[in-house]
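Homework help board

Subject: predicted structure for assignment chain

Our instructor gave us this sequence and asked us to write out the predicted structure in token form, then describe one feature. I got the tokens but I'm not sure how to describe them. Can anyone check?
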Amino acid sequence: MDPDLRLPILYQDDHYVAIDKPPGLLVHRTHLSGSDDAAVQRLRNQLRRHVYPVHRLDRPTSGILLFALSPESARPLADAFEQRQVGKRYIAVCRGWPPEEGRIDYPLREHKDAEAQTAVTSYRRLATVELPIPVSRYPAARYSLLDVYPKTGRRHQIRKHMAHIRHPLIGDTTHGEGRHNRLFREHFRFAWLLLRADRLEFRHPFHDEPTSIEAPLPERLHRLFLQLGWDSSHHGRTIGRVTP
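My token output:
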């Protein structure tokens, strides 16, 4: 198998395997994607066995993606996600300086004709930066590093919620702001969505023990954070690093 297509494995046992999904990779192939490349197919080829995703990540979102190794293993963990029994933490970079902590309780629609459903997201601000770069009528640009905790699992939930409170995520081409996305492309050569699933916590359906999976910080994000003046420790929270 082409080593460039191998997915980093963060956790594996007899029932489950977790990978570090790169940004831009679909979970499943779709007829609209225009590509045969997807996480399910890559991991199946890598492990030489069938795998079954038990939750989802948006295509531009990176980080922990969890699969079952059998339909029997998939069912209880998929139910745990559905029943909000899985703890999820993301790191994100947003425009502006939101309050140090916040809870966004704002119903969301899966699509424009669907009924709005309960959606709740909490966040904690870890660090801030003000860059002396004019954006629109402002002489400087402000950004924040966040820990984000979605309590529900609606489509694009974190991205929509942060846009709703006027602190859109950097790199979000659907719900974000083009001027700020462009600043990161031009000044930092960074074009990805700055949203990463970096921790999952759940009670193992077969071992009945607390299980925690963490994704280390990719080198490209580590470099970006250093450019923004953010080191690896914020408010007692250590953000890990992985070599390239």
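Reply (TA_rk): Your tokens look well-formed. For the description, you could write something like this. Residues 22 and 62 are 5 Å apart (CA to CA). That's the kind of observation they're looking for.
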